[in-house]
Amino acid sequence: MLYFRNDYSQGACREVLDALTETNLIPTAGYGTDQFCAAAAETIRGLCEAPSAQVHFLVGGTQVNKTAIGAFLRPYEAVIAAATGHICVHETGAIEQNGHKILALPSPDGKLRPQQIRAAAERHCDEHMVLPRLVYVSNTTEVGTVYSLPELTALSACCRELGLLLYCDGARLGSAMTVEGADTSFADYARLCDAFTIGGTKNGLLFGEALVLTNPALFPHFRHAMKQQGAILAKGRLLGVQFDAVLRSGAYLRLARHANTMAERLRRGLLDLGYRMAVDSPSNQLFPLLTPAQEERLREVCAYEIQSRDERGVCVRFVTSWATTEEDVDELLNNLKEM
Amino acid sequence: MLYFRNDYSQGACREVLDALTETNLIPTAGYGTDQFCAAAAETIRGLCEAPSAQVHFLVGGTQVNKTAIGAFLRPYEAVIAAATGHICVHETGAIEQNGHKILALPSPDGKLRPQQIRAAAERHCDEHMVLPRLVYVSNTTEVGTVYSLPELTALSACCRELGLLLYCDGARLGSAMTVEGADTSFADYARLCDAFTIGGTKNGLLFGEALVLTNPALFPHFRHAMKQQGAILAKGRLLGVQFDAVLRSGAYLRLARHANTMAERLRRGLLDLGYRMAVDSPSNQLFPLLTPAQEERLREVCAYEIQSRDERGVCVRFVTSWATTEEDVDELLNNLKEM
Amino acid sequence: MLYFRNDYSQGACREVLDALTETNLIPTAGYGTDQFCAAAAETIRGLCEAPSAQVHFLVGGTQVNKTAIGAFLRPYEAVIAAATGHICVHETGAIEQNGHKILALPSPDGKLRPQQIRAAAERHCDEHMVLPRLVYVSNTTEVGTVYSLPELTALSACCRELGLLLYCDGARLGSAMTVEGADTSFADYARLCDAFTIGGTKNGLLFGEALVLTNPALFPHFRHAMKQQGAILAKGRLLGVQFDAVLRSGAYLRLARHANTMAERLRRGLLDLGYRMAVDSPSNQLFPLLTPAQEERLREVCAYEIQSRDERGVCVRFVTSWATTEEDVDELLNNLKEM
Amino acid sequence: MLYFRNDYSQGACREVLDALTETNLIPTAGYGTDQFCAAAAETIRGLCEAPSAQVHFLVGGTQVNKTAIGAFLRPYEAVIAAATGHICVHETGAIEQNGHKILALPSPDGKLRPQQIRAAAERHCDEHMVLPRLVYVSNTTEVGTVYSLPELTALSACCRELGLLLYCDGARLGSAMTVEGADTSFADYARLCDAFTIGGTKNGLLFGEALVLTNPALFPHFRHAMKQQGAILAKGRLLGVQFDAVLRSGAYLRLARHANTMAERLRRGLLDLGYRMAVDSPSNQLFPLLTPAQEERLREVCAYEIQSRDERGVCVRFVTSWATTEEDVDELLNNLKEM
User: Fold this and answer.
1) What is the rounded distance in angstroms from the CA atom of residue D265 to the CA atom of residue B127?
2) Which of A307, B297, C319, D238 has the most crowded Cβ, counting Cβ within 10 A?
3) Which CATH superfamily is A2-7+252-337 part of?
4) Any CB–CB contact under 8 A between A325 and chain B?
């Protein structure tokens, strides 16, 4: 069975497994107060050119979004997000469970624009409505598109003007930073956002998201918020070990670039075979349109998600990862060719 | 530096590391819907003699307590727990964050008695007070004591009579099941509790708590509750692989027994040296009383937690684990002998 | 200054003030456990032909929506509502504060249709998304439109088929039941909904919303939920006295009909003067379109809300009430005529 | 039937009813943005000698405690209160429903001492425990005792030193300010607390608690928090009208003094008859001990609450109010004499 379902279908990359094995029996303090987390945080501050940033390590994506956003907001404050945003749809109301409304703005390409944010902020003008306070973006987005540096810069300026926090969900940040024509660096996110995550789960770690806080107003007592959310890992060292292993060695961007390269090979192959794409996505998620008959045959040989079904056909999602091989791609293309 | 701070100071036992390495590149579905989790759940149902139980795998202890209790209760329902309970003190208000009051009952030995529960239930008699609905116990308790089978049976009968759910936090369940004179089995917990956990983090896994639901009223939509709490691990397979590795092989109880044996060696040594214990604990947590001068010297050579300071002296906590060696124990005793 | 801002601009109707004064010094038990609340509840059960319904009295609209919906749902369950719904926009995220997502469906006329509900329910198919569980409608709606009996019957059938609760916010229920061609009765709401409110605040009471629960699954411990939300009035008698005064005497529907009649007089006058309506509303809220110049002059002599501004002009909202007089209406029309 | 159950058994005092009747038909803006609320707030700022204080009007006691404390705290922050505190016991977990733990400290007389607060703050020293942030006191307390000015001053100094907010629940503030030997003024509460309430419900209003915020850090967006909690009354004017009627005229303290005087008459009579008191309470709540036989006979002729039953006897609670007459007191004493 071919596997293009997601980028977290397998365990960890070699660097991660080796580092975990090597450090396995060294005793450390718990809860991320160990030397490995300290080293990884220092590595991240260096990459981000943000020597005073706070860095926290959490296990998963929903957990980090829920913990961070819940910690940042007052009860009546709300989040602005694209309607396709992960927190809007696929986190089972985790943000609302903490008490916060999400103002979901329409966005066919998964990206927010400053004028949308401005209009939403202006509409919410009195105490009978929630108070927008944080803008959530994800890069890459949930439909595989990528914010460019000018786009992020404009969003950041808009947020600062309006007194809104800018939070970037970087579950696939590596992919965003290594697509063809990518123009953003860790330091850009640190400079433009109040907080952002560097995703590990979808880029070769067993698990883990690093949360970088650059706005000092968000620093106080953040670990209290983590603990209350069940988001401090007892053996927190596992997060430090993994992140340091991939970030210091450069493996983080290399693995992401590999996933993008595999996606590009697949994308070209699909276009050559005449398939159309529902979204023009340059990153490691592709959204080709199949006929229902094609899709029914494909599912016999390949695992993937179905994004939607409509009059255009069945939109499936193929995701490549650090573990995808050229052979996997070519075999998938061969299967699609025969249909 | 000697390390008796806790039972999660090191990585994972050999069985776990091997199993993770062996399965590393096998692609699976995400979120615990894979074959490894299915196998581990089946193993647990077998050990519990509970063929219809639901088994869920979560990453950490606070997370599983918060998710389970939050899912089980209506908004105005409350938890009854010993004042020493982990959820009362050391989870930063995680249960309250989900909206639920904990009625903390005094208990010098960390255990609850039926008559206390009955009195608390009777006191809460109208809509101006919370409605007690769930009794939280931990085994072993936070002060190292152990509920016997007759004690658990009496608690269970009391809860059923009063319409209360019985939930057992088994973060150290292996230790409770393997102390000298232990009389409880997995099947007992399954039979007597509505839900309980089998702790992995403190017994040789990298991380992980297995939650066993035996009361069918608690089954519907539990995975929705998990996801909303950020408590479904993307690579959920890691939990299945680890639990199956230790439970099927019997390593789970063997590792716990080892920790208890090391604690027993330490306990006898401490008593031989004339140290008194603040609590009479038969499991892998010991609470000897030192003088302030002794404690100041010991901290130079050994890592541990300080439980409390009062007129009796400094009560320290020594925790043994699957990774503690006889040499570690003897070296600690040697240090204490010289003081 | 003319006053068409809302239907809660003045105190109470004569029946209410008299009843409060007459009963003022009679001592009663607190918290709505008094004889006046019992009588009012019995009156409501009679009007609703629902002898086993639970009736609760709360102070305000946001409070009753928040308390009821919060009590009915499990943490991961969600509400389906029209995007114009009061709970979506004008309750400052009160539903989300209790932890629940609202799935806001587009609706130009403020009403939901069964097919929308069905599609939303089908889209939310797994544990990564919230579980729709309650459909919120308001009658009259926030844009003054009215659900007919066939429409409500179809919604009810759809909800029952899909296992969804149907909740009707009746803040302006009196208006809905007395518009030209109205075809719904108290008994219809009791039969078709799982719970609904009979609004007092906007129909001549000082304050008060009666909540009628007809689905017995919603009965247990509802007063616990009320108390926890701060929604049990100490002198609960005030609610019973007021509701019984207007419901038993028939004043409730008479006052509502008066408000509708005044609105109809105003509507005809507006149309005669050539004004267009942004929404075709038969009830006591009217949404005429003015030019910016007209609106600027009108605000000198009349209080009202501005609904929106766009290329069609300034959409203002005129609301009539039990206290509106023909003279008020004619004076407003005279002012508008001169513009 | 005699009525000593509580101080909210009847409607409103004459001043309040008259003011409501007189202003009944004056149209105003909704939600407490009217001229009556503005006037009452100004009156309160004057009485408090706090010209920059924010004043908000809410309907009930649980509602104001829940709204204020919920608005003031971050998610992981906790409240310190006496175990007898209203929020600990009789608000059905309303504070916890907003996510906050209450640290309940033992207090036989219902009062907190600085050393208790200091010890609790010191115990909560890291991110594994909640962060104490607000001290809740009530004056009079739930057992009828009264904080003196030196006591409040010491509490205030302790809180400021420790970075804790001081919040005083003044549901019976009038009684506290008018007991024999009372030494506190409105201005004292404004000076010593960060926020406090002036209770109306238990002192002659139909309903209403005025919340005074003096710490400017608590000002921003407080009305958003109120609205989200369903705590902005649509006809907010009713609150302004009532508070201004009793505060400007001096009726507020006069009514409270009357209740205290009636209690004093009752207290002396009880002691003369040989009854003992469970608590030495100088205010309008008395807690005499009856024998079970006495209590059974008394309940035939008088309504009251039972506080507790133990080996000392049945502790009942008699509450006097603005509406209690000398005849009521004497008749109760006559009944008790015959027993």
Assistant:
1) 33
2) D238
3) Aspartate Aminotransferase, domain 1 (3.90.1150.10)
4) no
